[in-house]
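Case study 2.
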Amino acid sequence: MELPEEIAATRAGTGDPAALVGEFRRTAVLVPTAGEGRLMAGNHNGVRWIFAFTDEAALARFAEERAGAREGAPGRHGEPATGEPWEYVSVLGARLLDAVIPELDGPTGVAVNAADEDGSMLFPPARGIVPDEAAVDAAPDIGTQGEGA
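Prediction:
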């Protein structure tokens, strides 16, 4: 199955979490950038969530939702102003999980298709998803979160 189908199966309660993570790792996702090439992310309850999308249509829905929430206000945190195109990069899910997240300070996960109520999925900074040194549920002697960023 492709990532959107794995997400749908997991949300329906019939999916395999390991297959979902595996498919995310194999999928090239679109990640919007927020000035100076930084990956766009949001924060919720002390966790940074990198926004990632399975296709341009999902990214466009997210951009429209954010623009509607701002109603003509300038972009926040490096977001383009309303009506301006969004820049993005294509990144393999495994690279986000294994290379990008461990280099960031603080707990970081990935929010896929954040604007799609029935098609979104969170990949939290937990063991089995991110490397142990970046996992919030790892044993304290494994490593320090965010070291080296």
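The first helix runs from residue 3 to 11.
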